[in-house]
Structure prediction request, 196 residues.
Amino acid sequence: MKKVIIIHCWEGYPEYCWYPYVREKLEGYGFHVSVPAFPHTKLPQLNQWLDMLRDVVGVPHEEIILVGHSIGAVTIVRYLEKLMEGQKIGGAVLVAGFTDDLGYKELANFFVEPMDLSAAKRYSKGFVAIHSDNDPYVSLKYGDIFRDQLGAELIIKHAMKHFSGSADTEGSCIELPDVVEAVMKFSARDRIKEVR
Prediction:
């Protein structure tokens, strides 16, 4: 069974914004979906988030698809950078991801070393980067970086801000079908290869 792991954003949690929607939709298609609560979400630490992601993934393989939101997307890239030859996941969906600390000292520990996108690219069968044209925190330039350096399919949504917000707050992003579609594309691509 294909496994999807959603890595939430800074100050996020498993029931936040669009995560329950994506989980419900993908489970309906037969995926096993996990949305773990990462530690110290108000002051995230890369080493702790990587340790937890490694625990949740277990042995990386091509039946695993990772979905990350904001700092969760950064965590995915950092995880992939450190995989070993012969290890590969089935795909990664990066929602509002970025490649530097955006000026937030709370996120600086994720960027002590420059990101190695070429290393990360080797260990995933594909990438989709989803960005908003009015994100108040993450410039569209990061989508261009992921497209150019990871070979990501770039999806730009109109007026979706940072794809955030709690379910009971007006204007929150509580549905994000593009994530479901991206995961389904990764899965369909693998099924086509199996038939061949």
